[in-house]
Amino acid sequence: MVFSKVHQLDLPSNFPFTEMEAFKVAADSILRPETSVEAWQEYAGATNLIGWRFRNCHEDMERWVGSLNTHGENGDFEEEYLRDRALFGFFTAGLSCIESTCYALLALVNHLTLLNLPPQKMDKWRLYPQDVEKYLLERPETGALKTKLKELTVSDEYERLKQVRDRVTHRSNLPRNQTLGISNNAHQVFAKTISTKLYGEETELTINELFLKDMLAWLAESVRALLVEGARLCEQP
């Protein structure tokens, strides 16, 4: 863990600390509570949540891996519950981290009047990441941010986060087929379901330590890329 000056707490070492600090300095110079109360409140809350949810995600990964490596196939119902709770937290916090980053950007671009919302979408605080990209004005200064948002929202990882989060949040726990341990690389295989469609088709989902670490690395890079473009947007004349 590394101490985050922005969040005033320890965060996982792969969190984008430098980009987070640069974004906050740049955005703080533009978004001030005395000049834009609503936008500043939304921005401040979302910026704080980026770090909290990233740490949530990391800690839930550690809990799941620790449980499976310790108990393997011998976990009882209590242990299965704890693993399910850890996976719920991992996918829920991971998606929340992405959405919090986009929400902080939304507050910034709204303050900079770079959104073009049609009448039916005028509630700017109900926009999702793909909406932020869609309604950003076509300007030279917004081009790079629009590109990064598009890359994020069409990625397999983002779709996976959404699909599994929706499954464990709204429908049921992931239906487990089996638990296996091979050369200290314990993993679980979850059955395909009608409501969990990954990569556009029904498929089994195999989760192991490498899978979760790769997802967390993708999350860190996605947040980093968005924060970089958010900071650059503040530098525009």
State which percent range the strand residues make up: 5-15%
Which shape, going by the Cα principal axes?
Answer: elongated
Fraction of residues in helices?
Answer: 55-70%
Please state how the strands of the largest beta sheet are arranged side by side: 3-4-7
Whole-number total of structural domains: 1
Count of discrete alpha- or pi-helical segments spanning 4 or more residues:
7
- Per DSSP E runs of 2 or more residues, the count of β-strands stands at 7
The SSE string, one letter per element, is EEHHHHHHEEEEEH
Strand-pairing-aware structural class: mainly alpha
Q: How many whole angstroms does the radius of gyration measure?
A: 19 Å
Distance between the termini: 37 Å
Largest sheet: 3 strands, antiparallel
Compute the average pLDDT.
Answer: 86
Unreliable segments of 5+ consecutive residues: 177-184
Short description:
60% of the residues lie in helices and 10% in strands.
Structural overview:
The chain has one domain (2-171, 209-234). The strands form 3 sheets. It has a 3-stranded antiparallel beta sheet with strand order 3-4-7. A two-stranded antiparallel ribbon has the order 1-2. It starts with a strand and ends with a helix. Residues 177-184 have low confidence and may be disordered. The protein has 237 residues and is mostly helical. It is 60% helix and 10% strand. It has helices spanning 17-28, 37-71, 77-111, 129-135, 143-153, 156-171, 209-234; strands at 2-4, 9-11, 176-180, 187-190, 197-198, 201-202, 205-208.
